[in-house]
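In the previous lecture we treated proteins in isolation. Real proteins rarely work alone, and many bind small molecules. This record shows how such a complex is specified: first the sequence, then the SMILES for magnesium ion.
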Amino acid sequence: MSAVEIKNIVKKYSTKKTSVTAVDNISFTAERGELFGLIGPDGAGKSTIFRILTTLLLPDSGSAALLDYDIIKDWKEIRNIVGYMPGRFSLYKDLTVEENLEFFATVFNTTIKENYELIEEIYKQLEPFKNRRAGKLSGGMKQKLALCCALIHKPKILFLDEPTTGVDPVSRKEFWEILKRLKTRGISILVSTPYMDEAKLCDRIALIQKGKILEINPPKNIISKFERNLFAVHSPEMFKLLMDLRSYSKTETCFAFGENHHLVVNDSSISAVDVKKYLESAGHPKATVSNIEPTIEDCFMHLMSK
Ligand SMILES: Nc1ncnc2c1ncn2[C@@H]1O[C@H](COP(=O)(O)OP(=O)(O)OP(=O)(O)O)[C@@H](O)[C@H]1O
Ligand SMILES: [Mg+2]
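The predicted 3D structure, ligand included, written as tokens:
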């Protein structure tokens, strides 16, 4: 029995004028105890998938089961076994930290005391502010409180929709440490993120774009399958450089990537020296070219361009 098994799910949003296929025939399985990531840009369909799996939205077709409970037939059981932290702020701003937590515990017919042990590590950091209104907390604190609220009924599967969006880097790192520890407690975790650097912290990831899965694998397998020469290229004239690299006959893809451009070539015999020679002839005497290892983002960009 898997934590999540989703088969051929389709979901369209239609108005009189337009129709968007938010989830386009998606299937995947997340195992028990796994930390599974849905990685994709804005509008990829991440939230729609989470809302279907947490029984808040009905799919148009396809089926899904959580620990063998069917998302349609067994929606009541599912609501008891899942914890859900929605993308946007899900707390009651005018309630205090403690009142928010109490509210979520009451909804699930439990008490803070009964399940305190599961949230203790996270809640300890919030306790000094327990009388502060949730609306007045920092981003990282809100995120921790939302996580406590999603955990207070001891769910078996946790759905976290972009939990670190808009959160500072230190809190992001801390949050992922917490997830790792929750995993050791046997909780299955599905997390969505647009941050590619977080992808590598998952056991397996599904790269999704426009409602379709491009690839599902452990992050290191996605990287090892890249099998292309990748170069980081820099020159004082970055825009012209991008144009010139895109018209290079050996270029497969080239994207701006932080301070460099990342160039994938279509011929494995091409070296950094060859690229440098081409760039010199194209009017970039100061260009630097270095062979680099791909990141998940490179893999994603490459899969997207196919
Ligand atoms: N209620 C809705 N009505 C109409 N279209 C919608 C609705 N919700 C989502 N969509 C559209 O469906 C597609 C998938 O949206 P979804 O929110 O699932 O993506 P996402 O990956 O969560 O993106 P984001 O990063 O913006 O949260 C997008 O094109 C979005 O505009
Ligand atoms: Mg979303």
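Summary for your notes: The mean pLDDT is 94. The CA atoms of residues 11 and 17 lie 17 Å apart.
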